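Lab notebook, bench 4. The sequencing result for the construct came back, and we need a structural model before the next group meeting so we can plan mutations. Quick request posted to the team channel:

Model the 3D structure of this chain.
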Amino acid sequence: MFEDIIVPFSEERLTSHVQRYPCSCIPSAIEIILKQLGKVDSDYYELQDYWRNKCDGSFHDFEGKVLYGLTFKHLFGRERGPNFPLDALFRTISDELAQQRFVVVSLSAPGGGWHMFVIHSQIGAEFVAAAKTDSANWIVSNVKSQVRQMGGTDILVYTIKP
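Done. Here's the predicted structure in token form:
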């Protein structure tokens, strides 16, 4: 029923990346994508250094931004709950992966708050995502399950200019 989709993702590039500030997970996730796509060097931290510890930021801060040929779009920025369109969200993520594009997703973090992850694969019915916490890799293999428990979430997608 579900097709496995693996977007080429370098564990080495993820490992060499660092989230520099406690509240810079949004720009950190975008930097991970830029590094994965070879758009920037491994020592690129311009987005995090500009953002620093902006704890009131959101995906909306990157809506329509063009960075190194990628144009970002914030999707599903609506209230979580029983009326959240989970099927449409999951279909959108699957479609993005099928187009060989990563998806940034907001997931609840242990102890409260949120952390941003880069979805890079669909294995069976589940999505697999990666993030950084300081210099440690954080892999989540049950993204759909977590999103269902949260009652929905928003995502950040991108298009690439030819």
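The longest strand covers residues 114-123.
Will bring this to the meeting.
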